[in-house]
Amino acid sequence: MSDRSSTDGEPYTKIDTSVPHSARIWNYWSGGKDNYAVDREAGDAFAATFPGVFDLAKQARQFLIRAVTYLATDAGIRQFLDIGTGLPTLENTHEVAQRAASDARIVYVDNDPLVLTHARALLTNTTDDGVTAYVNADLHHPEQVVADARNILNLTQPVAVMFMGVLGHVADDDEMRSIVARVMAAVPSGSYLVMWDGTSTSDDQVRALEDYKDTGAVPYIGRSPEQIARCFEGLEILEPGLVPVSHWRPDPDAGTVAPVDGYGAVARKP
Q1: Is residue 3 part of a domain?
Q2: What pLDDT sits at residue 158?
């Protein structure tokens, strides 16, 4: 996330290819094409220490697909607030939601100039009766996120609030929990929290994240499942609970799926 802005209030869109960029590195791990040599080098260096990162990226996207599909179909959710969206890739939130419910309204939130540029070009509505919008706001300021989202979403009706692998960029545990709690306080009963984050469950990933701090990209904190679970306090966590994202309601036809070092859950606000 970035706070850079130009004098007219619009974010800079100049792309700096001299240092790795966390969103572009994730795009690379996810199989996307919106990355540069410097990102691939940093991504490969990370993967040399923690090879499981490629599978984690794949399984995180599959978790998003399954969670959003469940919410739009079984739970009847028609509003999605995807905070810290990152670079568009395959099966973005609006594509999944509007495939399941054509009238779904999706608001993406990020304040990274690079993400903003791509989002405006690629995150477009897929149905005639749905809405896809982008809010330029910083997740560190949840009240602003909510205020901007309110211009597009009806916050008297249930909303699925999504933090997909982004809260590791918040260094302080208390701040992380506060961000989630303040957004969830602004949405009504019947809303949902969908969240996953990278964990400290692998020594290799812990070492890779330490080395990652030296690349120039925004550092990422791997937390324990217990630390992540505190973001769900006061909510009703759906089965199977907080689990490796690959184990959250996997496709039964997929066979046995190995656990990954990223934990996630879906929870309902009572």
Answers
A1: no
A2: 98
